[in-house]
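Summary for the lay section of the report: proteins are chains of building blocks that fold into shapes. Here we show the chain for Threonine synthase and then a coded description of the shape we predicted for it.
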Amino acid sequence: MNFIQTRGCDKNTPLSVTFSQAILSPIASFGGLYVPENLPDLGREFLNKHVNSSYKDLAFDLLNRFEIDIDSYVIKEALDLYDKFDNSENPVPVVKVKENLYISELYHGPTRAFKDMALQPFGVVLSSIAQKKGEHYLILAATSGDTGPAALETFKNRSNVQVACLYPDGGTSDVQRLQMVTEDAKNLKVIGINGVFDDAQNALKRLLASEEFKKALKEKNILLSAANSVNFGRIIFQIIYHIHSYLELVRQKAITMGEKVYLNVPSGNFGNALGAYYAWKMGLPVEKIIISSNENNVLTKLIKTGKYDLRDLHVVSTTSPAMDILKSSNIERVLYDMFGYKRTRELMQNLEEKNFYELTSDELAQLQESFDADFCTGDEGKVYIKKTFQKNGYLMDPHTATCMKSYETCSDPKIKTIAYSTAEWTKFSPVIANALTGEVDAQDIKALASISNEAKLEIPSMIKELFSKEIVQKTVIEKEDIEKEILKFL
Ligand SMILES: N[C@@H](CCOP(=O)(O)O)C(=O)O
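The coded shape description reads as follows.
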């Protein structure tokens, strides 16, 4: 299958590219993104076939349906990384929390967040293409806390790749920061910036499109790619777990095959939600996709009003920092899918030039056929964390907690919901300790111990170890100096 461009094609790029071309060079004409020419139609036959499949078998078959130009043995090697997850038989447990509400736990990988689901295999795929072509790549990653650790973990010491990871200094949880700044490998550079996630992501997109930067890299014999969900190589792996989660409910006899469910997705850059949308379009029985946000609620406003309005808006720091994002990358792929490349280019150009776009009422109606949305404040989230722990014995992180509000406000309680848990409690322990016991300003190490004691949960070794590791990545710079700092590292 080939991949085409969300904003149309300028005459300098081919009309369509292969999967490996799209992942090696993820930014398309006019600053757009790559999307599959068409999505495979899985049909009920595919779901029936995989009711009793392992995650890896389901994933392998699904990737085959995309007919991507990656050797089968590479795909198998990539999928074998799910064996490192807590339960190699089932890397994504789906847990019943209460009547009609199920949580798909996407955080059982090495960095305790859902990003491992895609970045673990993506690291193998990208590095093996680079090796096969005899090329060297700089992989950029911009993170609000989860993508960074997962990207560093997957590319650490891999051949033919170096990573430059940009994070907002002070804009992540302490565990997320430690996961990055203690990463010690020659091919990794972690750069804190004085700014917010959107500054890091803007820099990433600017560098990916900059001929001058690419020329400077070429002089060092290096090419440029990215680990964020602008890269379709990330998205393809983020479709699988939605199908798996649905099949888990069938296996648990919570639903019958064909029954529609809500997919409730905590959203920032919209990669997770886009995976849900594609899974639905490929044949998963879905009632609606519910988009859950924190106080940075641009997505709620877009879905409720049709306006994407960044004028006079600033990111606010919240208790769910991985979603402290205003410019959400993957909405663009939905716009393309619904309204085509001309309208997508027009809307994205408006956003870039005027910080604003507005859908027509017909377009909004179309968007609302697939999506509904609500946002949850940090204080509301803490109430949900405490209530769900006390009433249902289920402990969730503050990102997952945003789903609890929209579950109440956006869904019909008679229809089952799969909500996605994007991170383990260990990554945000001070907020959770505050929610459960009222303790204020606890350091992570103390908060982890008190939650572990209260909830009778083990702290995984990779989290415990962080506190005694040496901090080796000490760079914090102004955002204007990003390019210079990256070139210094190479
Ligand atoms: N929430 C993310 C931000 C980057 O998202 P991505 O899906 O584009 O990698 C994070 O935690 O880093």
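Put simply, here is one thing we learned. The mean pLDDT is 97.
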